[in-house]
Amino acid sequence: MMKIQSSQVAGLFFIGMSCLAIPAAQAQQSSTVRRIYISPKGSDQNTGTSVKPFATADAALRAAEKYKKGKAGYGIEIIFNGGTYYLDKPIQLLANHSGSKRQPLKIKAADGKQVILSGGRTLDLKWEQGDKGIWKAKVPAGVSFQSLYANEKHLVRARYPNYDASILPFQGYASDALSPARIATWKNPTGGIVHALHAGRWGGFHYRITGKEDSSKVMLEGGEQNNRPSKMHETYRFVENIFEELDTAQEWYLDEATATLYYMPSHGKDPNQLKFVAPQLESLITISGSASGPVHDIEISGLCFTHTAPTFMKTSEPLLRSDWTIYRQGAVKIEGAENCTLRANDFVELGGNAVFVSNYNRGVKISGNRIEQIGAGGINFVGDPEAVRSPAFRYEKFVPLSQIDTLRGPKTNNYPMDCEASDNMIHTIGLIEKQVAGVQVSMAESLRILHNTIYNVPRAGINVGDGTWGGHEIAYNDIFNTVLETSDHGAFNSWGRDRFWHPDRKEMDQMTAAHPNLILLDAVRTTKIHDNRFRCDHGWDIDLDDGSSNYEIYNNLCLSGGLKLREGFYRKVYNNVMINNGFHPHVWFKDSHDIFRDNLVMHSHQDIQVKYWGDEVDHNIYTRKEDLLKDQTKGVEKHGRVVPLNFVDAIQGDFRLKDWKGNGFTNFDMLHFGVKDKRLKSLAASPEIPQLIRSGAKEQGLKWGWKGGQFKSVETLGEQSAAGLQSIAGVLVLQLDEKSTLYKSGLRANDVILDYQGEKIEKLTDLQQAIKKLIHADQPKVVVVRNQQQQKLALQL
Hints:
By secondary structure, the protein is mainly β.
C-alpha cells in the first residue's frame, strides 16, 4: 500500500461538508434597484419582498422578468436568505434573464448569511437493527443514489478494500478486488462498480458490473473515461456497491430492487437520530444561451453549492487527441454566456465537476471561489470540436496530409475566449475521477488563469489539452501536491497534438520539415506561463508534452520536478529557477526553434533522444561545475556559468540570488503566489519548501554491449515518459549496429525490451539472466515498446 504523509496533504481526505458564511457587503438601498427575496420558509404565492419572500428561484426569476419589462434599465438583485435549499431541479438562467453591463442581474446570498444550494434529497427513514451491526430502512420506490450523507458526513459505499484515507490511490486498493475467490462470495453483484487506474496510470477507468458470467467471473460495461484505452491496472483497483462488502462502520449499500438501504453505523449509534441526504441532481445552476442569443451580465456570489450526484459513468466524450474524456456538466454549467461572473462562492462535497464552461463563452469570470472535496474536476473550459479544423480524437489517429484543412485558426466561434479563472482556492479534487485538473483547458483561446492556489490533486493542477488556439496567460498561481495518484504528468501539463501531429515520429518529422506552415495552424497565439510556483514530487513541475508548441515560459519557481519540453516547436524558456532539478528536453524536432537560456538549474540537462538542440540552449546558470562541463560535452552551454548557492532565504522559499548583479538572469518575486482574497488566503495551504540538495544528479547506470548493441536499464521518469512506458522498467536499446542480426530481426535503437521469451524484463540483469537461461531458444521472442506501442519480434541470434 502507498502511504502518504499527513503533513504534506493535510486535510486531503476529510469526509464532511463545510459551507462557510461568506462576507458580502450589502448594496445601499436605491430606487433604481429592485430586490427580490427567497427564503426556505417563503412561498411562491408571496410578493418576493423581504417580509414576504418567495420559496424558489423560479418564482424570483419570473418576478424579475416581469419587473424588468416595466422598469427598463433598472437593476435587479435576487437575494437568498440564510438556510439550505434542497433543489428538485437546477436553477436555469436564460437569455431573457440577462442584465446589462451597467446593471447586471445579481443572484447572491443575504449579507453575511450562509446559503446552501443542495442537489440532495432528505430521506425520511425508519431504521431497524439487523444482524452483524447492519441496520436497514426502506427508501421511496424509484429513488436511487450513488452517494450518501449522514449529519453532513460523507459516508462510504460498501467497498473492498475498506476505505483508508492515508492510502493512495483510491484510499485503498487491492490486486484481488476481482479475484475469482472474492467474486464467488458475491451473491448478486449487479450494479457494483469497479474503479481502476489506467495500466500506465494515465488517469482512471470505471466499470459497472452487469452480472455474473459464472460463479467466479463478472461482466462489465464502461471504461470510457480515458482517451488512451488500456486494460485496467492489475494492482490499483477497488470495487464498491456490493452488499457482501458492507463490513465496517460508516459503510452503506442500497438494494434498488427492494428499495432497501443498509447501513453500519459506529458502534452504539442509532441511525434514527441522524439526518440522511442523498444527492440527486448533477447541476444546481445552468446558464444556457448561444452565440446568437447569449445570456449576459449576470453575477452569482456568496452561495454554497453542494450535494451533486457523481457523474463518472457519463464521462465518455473524447477531447481531440488528449488523454481526456469529459462529461459536459458541473454544479454550475455555463454555455452561451457573455460577461457573466461567479464570485466568492463555495463549491464543496460535489460528485462531479464544480464548474463547466462549455462551448461559446466570452468574458466569463470565475473568481474568489473555494472549491474542495470534489468528485471530478475544478474549473473546466472546453470548446466544441466542430470549431476545430481537421480534428482527430485519439493519440494514434491522424488526418492525412492531403486532407488537412490548411486555414489558420478556428472554424467557428463556438468555444471559450477571453474568459478568466482567478483567485480561486482549489484542492482535494478528483476523489472519484482521476483524469481531472484544478483548471482544465481544451479548445479555447486567450484565457487568463491567475492567482489560483491549487493542491492535493490526483493529476495536474492546470492542464491544457491541445494547442487550439493558445494565447492563454497562466500566472501567479501556486500549484503543489500534484500527480498524487497517477504518473507521467506535471503540476502544469500540456499536450499539443494538433493538425501537424502524426503518431509515427518519422512521418511527423518529414511532414513538418516539408510543410512547416502546419505547425502553428492551431496554436495561433503564444501561451505565456510566468510568475508561478510549482511543486510536483511525482513528475515534472512544468510538463510540456507531445507536440506542445508556441509557449513563452519565464519567472517560474520550480520546487521539485524541473521543466520538461517534449517534442514541439517554438518554446522560449528563460529566467526560471529549478530547485534540486533542472531541464528535461525529450525527443526534439530538428528545427524546433526552441530556446532555453538564462535559467538557474541544479543539475545537468536530462536530455532524452535529443540530436538537435533548437535555436539556443545557452547562458544558463549552474550550481555545480561538473554539471556545466557535462552539458558542454553535448555541444551546448558555451556561455553557461556557475554561481554559488547563495539565496536570500532558502528556508522560507525565497530563492532569489543574494546580491546578484550578473547579466541575463534577473531576480523575481518569490513570496506572493496564489490567492489574494483575504478569506481564501486564511484557508489555503502552502507547499513544503524543499531542503537544498547540494550533491549532483545520480550517474547513469551500467551499460552492456551485446551482439552489436548497447543496452541499459530504464532508470528515470524521463526515460519512462519518452518511451511511453507504464512504469520505470525495461531495458533500453541505446545503440544498434545496422549490420547486426538484432537489427535485421527488427530491433531498433530506442526500443525498450519488456519481455524475453516469456521472462519479464524490468532491468538489465533480468535480460542478461534470461538470455543465459534460454540460451537454446530458437528465435527467442521479445516484446518491445516503440512509438508508445508494444510490438513482438523474433530475434535472429
